[in-house]
Amino acid sequence: MRIWFCLWVWFSTLADGSGGLPLPAPLWVVPEISGPPFYPHPVSLPKQWITWNLQWFPGHTPTANPVAKADHERDVKKWLGRWKPDVAILEEVLDADALKRSVPELPWQAVTRFSRAADEGEKLPPQNLAICSRVPWVEAWEMDFGNLPMSPDRPVRGFLGVMWRTSSGETWTAYAVHLKSNRGGREGMARRRERAIDYLRLDWRRRGLSPEKDAVLLAGDFNSSLKNPEFRGERTIHNLLEEGWVSVTAGLPWPAGATVRPDPTQKYPATDFDHILLSPGWVGQMGTQRWKAGVMQSPDLPGDHWPVWMKLEKQPVRSPCLDR
Q1: In b/e form, how buried is each residue of 237-251, taking b as 16+ CB within 10 angstroms?
Q2: Could you report the per-residue pLDDT of 43-69, keeping only the tens digit for each?
C-alpha cells in the first residue's frame, strides 16, 4: 500500500529555483522496497556505482513477448554480474519482480510506481526508476509528479532517493533521475527538464540537505548533453555545474563519452544523455582525484544506452556529514 507523505497542497514558502511563484507540491511516497528485513549499519559506504537505462526492462519494448522478456532478464543479469557494482541506478524498469531475478546480488532494491502523464501516452506502462544496492540503506523515498497540473513546463515521472548511513554515522544520498525526452521539440522539453531540477531543490530543502556541504549524487538519463553544442543553452545540468557539481565523465573525449548508441536508422546520432553528477559536498569530502569513471561501450550490451560507471578509490578525506 502506498503511504502518502503529502497531499495536494501549495507550499507558499518554497519558491522554484528561478525565484518565481511557489511550485505546486508533488506527492512524496514510499516506493516498492525489497531486501533483507534485518541488517546492521555497514562499516563503509558503496564504492562501485553504475547507472544504466535498461530500455523498457524487461523486453526492450512495452509489448514484448515472454521470450524477449526472459532474454532481456538474462542479459542484464549477466552484465551486472560481470561488473559487480555496489549500487545500480536504473531507468525504464517495468517489472520490479524481473529486477529481483536479474540483480539478486544487490538485494536492497527500491522501485518507483509512477503513472504516465496524459501527454505521454497513458496506454503505455510507466517507465520506473530503481536503485539496487549491495549495501543496506536507512531510507528510500519517491517524489511523484503524477498529480501536477498539465502545463508547458510540467516535469514527468519523478525522482527516487536513497540515503545510506554507516555504523560511524557517515551518510551519503543518491537520486535516480530520468528527465523528459526531446520528443516534441528540444527547446520546449528543456523547460520541463529545467523545472525538474527545481523540484530536486525543493526535495533537498524538505530533507534539510545542502549540496554545498552534504554528499549528494544524481545519476540517470538526463536527456540533455554536455558534449553536443546544440544543448549549450540548456540550463538543466549547467546550472548545477556552475554551483560546483561535477560530472564524473566530463573529461572523456568523444566518442568515448557517448552513452546512447546511434539509432540503426541513423535518425538519432550517438550522444551523452546519461550522467553521474557529484555535489560540491561530495567532492569536498572525497577530493577531486578519488574516483575513476567511464562509459561501458560494447556492441553486445542489451538496449540503446551504454552504462556509466564510477569507482571510488579511497575513503573520504574527512568525515561526511553526520546524522542531523
Answers
A1: bbbbeeeebbbbbee
A2: 888 999 999 999 999 999 999 999 999
Q: Which helix (H) or strand (E) segment is 247 a member of?
A: strand 246-247
Order of strands across the sheet with 27-29?
Answer: 27-29, 139-144, 158-165, 171-178, 216-221, 274-278, 246-247
Classified as helix, coil or strand, 283 is helix
76 phi/psi in degrees, rounded to 5: -65, -40
Q: Please tell me the distance from the alpha carbon of residue 274 to that of residue 25, in angstroms, as a whole number.
A: 27
Place of cell 503513472: 115
d(CA 170, CA 240): 24
What does the pLDDT look like over 175-211, one tens digit per residue? 999 999 887 777 778 999 999 999 999 999 999 999 9
Q: What are the angstrom distances between the C-alpha of 157 and each of 181, 212, 215, 285?
A: 11, 26, 24, 31
CA angle 101, 220, 310 (to 5 degrees): 85
pTM score, whole prediction: 0.89
Mean pLDDT of 254-280: 89
Tell me how far CA of residue 15 lies from CA of 20, 217, 297, in angstroms: 6, 23, 41
Burial group, residue 218, by CB count within 10 angstroms (0-12, 13-18, 19+): buried
Total count of residues recorded for the chain:
324
Angle at 185 between CA 183 and CA 186, to 5 degrees: 95
Q: How far apart are CA 275 and CA 8, in angstroms?
A: 31
Q: Could you tell me if residue 302 is left (phi over 0), alpha (psi between -120 and 50 degrees) or otherwise beta?
A: beta
Position of cell 530500455? 55
Task: Specify the 3-state DSSP secondary structure of 169.
Answer: coil
Torsions phi, psi for 92 (to 5 deg): 60, 50
Q: Which range, of 8-22, 90-104, 230-244, averages the lowest pLDDT?
A: 8-22
DSSP three-state, residue 87: strand
